[in-house]
Specification:
- The termini are far apart.
- It is built from four helices and six strands; from the N terminus they run H-H-E-E-E-H-E-E-E-H.
- A hairpin with a 5-residue loop joins strand 5 and strand 6.
- By secondary structure, the protein is an alpha+beta fold.
Length: 133
């Protein structure tokens, strides 16, 4: 009986551990590398978490209308190896982002690069680079 309980516990733990992996989607499933965007705006939110860092910008169009955009970057550990820290980008900063838009037409994109307020262009540890052959 102890072996059955131990076996079921191990199976349950393996299933639970694989859940985040099953929820993760490929770049090609979510974003269109043929539809590029370059936007500048004010940083309104930063989620520095795994599996991807997300940040959000209020972007003003020519008519003055403000739209909030979400940008996916790579995981925190890859961003850190590229020179990013949690404080590289701050709420209220004006940044410029280049990337690929979401296939579903929402205001989301996979960031390829971010230009910080001091003019430094930084890579975004993007999953797009990993998706290219």
């Amino acid at each position: 009986m102890r072996h059955i309980v131990l076996g079921l516990t191990i199976v349950a733990a393996l299933i639970a551990a694989s859940m985040p992996l099953m929820a993760h989607h490929s770049f090609a499933a979510e974003f269109d590398s043929n539809k590029q965007v370059k936007l500048s705006g004010v940083v309104t939110k930063i989620d520095w978490t795994n599996p991807h860092v997300w940040f959000y910008l209020d972007v003003k169009d020519e008519s003055g209308k403000i739209t909030n955009w979400g940008f996916e970057m790579g995981p925190p550990h890859l961003l850190q190896t590229s020179g990013w820290t949690r404080t590289t980008m701050k709420l209220g900063d004006v940044v410029t982002v280049q990337g690929s838009v979401a296939k579903n037409g929402t205001n989301r994109a996979n960031a390829r690069s971010v230009t910080t307020p001091d003019g430094k262009r930084m890579g975004a540890a993007s999953s797009e680079a990993q998706a290219q052959p």
